[in-house]
Structure prediction request, 279 residues.
Amino acid sequence: MLFHIIYLQIQKQKKMETKNIIKYSVLGVVALIAVCCIFSSFFVIDAGYRGVKSTLGTVEEYSYQNGVGFKAPFITKVIEFDVRTKKMNEKTSCYTADMQTAEIDYTVTYNLKGDNVHMLYTQVGQDYEAKKIVPILNDVIKSTIGQWQAQELVSNRDSARISVTAGLQQKLDSRYFENVSFQFNNIDYSDAFEKSIEAKVIAGQQAEKAINDTKRIEQEAHQKVIAAEADAKAMTIKAEALAKNKGLTEYEAVQKWDGKLPTYMFGGSVPMIQVPTGK
Prediction:
């Protein structure tokens, strides 16, 4: 009888312990769920980003700015969009007007319009670059490059850049994108074509040098003709003057005489006596 009473007490105590364990376990789970609910009710959007709130697939028509906000736990998610200046470095191939293949290495920069990222998410999605930017970008680049001869494109690179930028600003959806700019990093052609351009440039330089040399020679020859004509004219005038006035001959001789008389005169001329000079 005593053992039976002790057994019943032990069983009762075990039941109480089991109930306590279940109770505390349930309380722990409830507390954990409560903590999770509390933490999942907050969201944080970092500086330079905007947020889009979606509850069970329904997107709110508002773009949340950076900071802390509240949302329904578990059923609401917040998608962040980077609204800082974004840069795309890409390459593409296209044909010039003279059917040369140009390898274009370029950079595009742009910003998302922060107030409209909820519309962008709803109508386009997060892969907006592949859907909205790249197709238009390739079309504008190929259209612009196709207007230039290959050699002209190199020397008119900045004009082509301005044309591409204008085309992008016109065709990209202004509801989503702003501050769009374009820059060529490199324009590359085949080795054979680049060598032909180099040879053409060298030939042009040589031709220009030949033209300049010819002009210089012609100018020098012309100056010599002018100088010769001037000398001939001076001699003619001088000869005419001597013929008209023979006294000029003696005058010129006196002008050129150094003051010394010759000691002897050869031929039939009268010898001349050197006048001694005083010391």
Observations:
- Helices lie at 2-40, 117-123, 128-145, 150-155, 157-171, 191-244, 247-256.
- The domain at 86-189 is CATH 3.30.479.30 (Tetrahydropterin Synthase; Chain A).
- The radius of gyration is 51 Å.
- The beta strands are 42-45, 49-55, 58-64, 67-70, 76-82, 86-95, 101-112, 177-188.
